[in-house]
């Protein structure tokens, strides 16, 4: 949902530069945007829920780390099975997130070109405010990518390729 709200802000910024943003005042458009933010995470969420197995997670801990079995609390983040559903979950997430970022980057490029073209027709204050807004949107889009998406994707790939079973790795558990 967060990615879509930022994307809608970018779209609003772009549309407000090329024509009037009155389209965003239309109740049907507003409802469609709101509905899309509800529907957007459903594919990934469905694959995630299907892939959680609390009993398998508990059995894994008892078998491999019996000294931790008394303090182990099975939650959805540590009971995901590595199987084809997890691969589908990861691919779904990569496609969804990549699509949002590709559209966003494309619009950022178009916004930049539009601002360059309009620099003589906008006041210095308006141009400065629009550039600050675009910079804020870029930061809002980049921070989650750097601190959430990339690390979690790396961790998930390391689990999928079996790094946890590599000799000398993850023995601190």
Write the layout of secondary structure elements.
Layout: H1 2-18, H2 27-39, H3 42-51, H4 54-64, H5 84-118, H6 124-160
Helix pairs in contact: 1-5, 1-6, 3-5, 5-6
Folded structure, characterized:
This protein has helices at residues 2-18, 27-39, 42-51, 54-64, 84-118, 124-160. By secondary structure, the protein is mainly alpha-helical. It has six helices and no strands. The chain has one domain (2-165). Helix 3 packs antiparallel against helix 5 and helix 5 runs antiparallel to helix 6. The longest helix is centred in the last third of the chain and has 37 residues, at 124-160. Helices cover 71% and strands 0% of the residues. The radius of gyration is 22 Å and the shape is elongated.
Comma- or semicolon-separated keywords:
elongated; mainly alpha; 0% strand; 173 residues
Specify the number of helices.
6
Measured as a percent range, the helix fraction is over 70%
Q: What kind of sheet is the major sheet?
A: none
Low-confidence stretches: 166-173
Provide the number of structural domains: 1
* CA(first)-CA(last) distance: 34 Å
Mean pLDDT comes to 82
Total number of strands: 0
Assembly type of the chains comes to single chain
Looking at the structure, what is the overall shape?
A: elongated
Keywords: Membrane, Transmembrane, Transmembrane helix
Transmembrane segments: 29-50, 86-109, 137-164
Pfam family, one: 7TM_GPCR_Srh
InterPro entries: 7TM_GPCR_serpentine_rcpt_Srh
